[in-house]
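Follow-up to my post from last week.
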Amino acid sequence: MDELDQLVPDVFARDCASRPVLEHVAGRWAILALAALREGTFRFNALRRRVDGVSEKMLAQTLQTLERDGFVHRRAEPTIPPKVEYSLTPLGEETADKLADLIEFVEARLPDVLAARQAYDEARAAHA
Amino acid sequence: MDELDQLVPDVFARDCASRPVLEHVAGRWAILALAALREGTFRFNALRRRVDGVSEKMLAQTLQTLERDGFVHRRAEPTIPPKVEYSLTPLGEETADKLADLIEFVEARLPDVLAARQAYDEARAAHA
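User reply:
Got it. Predicted complex:
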């Protein structure tokens, strides 16, 4: 890779800084958290209920990574107990729109995927 | 969840079959493999070079999962040695278009992410 190449982010290059960012937003829980936050501001526990199945630890890690990368805004009110709210930044909104597009597509095409799987497994069984 | 809900795929529900499918296409190596295959048909080793950094084992697993789900077509010619080629199915093409859109966005906005990280780390250091 010469110097000029390094000026243009390329996720296909193993050391490009864009690759971990892609992994941060496309990660298992990040996709769901970002897509959920399109619905509005969430407190931590409400978001945890929305992203059904995520552990407290994984959601906290995911949100911190997304906050550090500038996709999520964390707002803590200095009350007792502290009230902490999460929302999308403008960058996060654009990202979440693209993820929601992917999610809707996967949900809509689930019957095709299940049919493909059945055909694959039957072909394997026939050759076994 | 009542019976009617189960008829409509919802990735936010932990047991919905759409959730693992989303994870299959948005997985670390799957995103890159699907996006690479938009460029055309690849033999295994050529695809492995394109998806810089992937191990032989991880790429093989990724491609098998994507083939079973109907996103990737595997074609083996009965030559010696066997010539195996991978390409996108129509379903895979649509998926890969959405992933490429996400990749291009992340690459384009990398400077914003790096700036956000720097601001985050500086704010943390100031409070430490």
